[in-house]
Amino acid sequence: MSGGILQLWVERLSLDPAAWTAGHALQLLMGQDAPARVGRADLWEITADAASPDDAAAWTARRAAFETWMRSSNLFMNPSRDRGRLLDDMPPEFAPSIGHVVCVDRGAGESRAHALTLGHALGGRWKVRRGTVWTLAWAPEKAESVPALLETAAFARRRHTGLLVQPESQEARLFVDAWDRPALPAADSIGAQAPAGGSDGGVA
User: Fold this and answer.
1) How do beta strands 37-48 and 98-105 pair?
2) Nearest-angstrom CA–CA distance, 42 and 130
């Protein structure tokens, strides 16, 4: 796996009320510049310390074991409500007219409970972090404007607070036609005040 990290994308099978509400609010705030569609997903970034990312066979086996176990467990998702997929090199939707806002609660850190459960189930040592990904899609003809529109949408103000990102309590990274592994803000950025453009200071 690239970067030695499994990225698990979990989203609702049916309409996500939070995504619908955010989309409606952005329509009111941005008018014709609002995204045509807004989606939300949980992003879990999971590292297995037992295998080197340079050992392709070991990582393939680790990924297969995790995916099989994950689909029979409710640790990361509710199978009756959610769908989950392991990402390869990019999110499920990827295009110049699509932007992603990845955010984490400042100070949230790692989930030791999830890491310990994985260790008991699959052996080895694990590191688990969780964040939220907002996917915003504009019409293809707006592709050149999407980097600026994404930043506006991510930090839109509503009743004295952020809409998709809460700058007072969250760190965020913005991606347009790009994706990283890991995509969550770096652990050493948690606890620092987010600048106006997100923890990276802009759009990737």
Assistant:
1) unpaired
2) 7
SS3 assignment, position 6: strand
Interval 36-66: pLDDT, tens: 999 999 999 998 875 555 677 877 888 899 9
Name the residue type at position 107.
G
Q: Decide: 153 and 162 in contact? Cβ < 8 Å.
A: no
Q: How many residues does the chain have?
A: 204
Query: Which H helix or E strand runs over 10?
Result: strand 6-12
Task: Map residue 29 onto helix, strand or coil.
Answer: helix
Q: What is the DSSP letter of 203?
A: B
Beta strands in 61-177 (DSSP E): 82-86, 98-105, 126-137, 157-158, 161-162, 170-176
Total Cβ atoms within 10 A of residue 73: 13
Show me where the domains of the chain are located: 2-189
Q: What is the b/e burial string over 172-187, where b = at least 16 CB atoms within 10 angstroms of the residue's CB?
A: bbbbbbebebbbbbee
Q: Residue 202 contacts by C-beta under 8 Å, 6 or more apart in sequence?
A: 151, 174
What is the Cβ-side half-sphere exposure of residue 132, based on CA atoms within 13 angstroms?
20
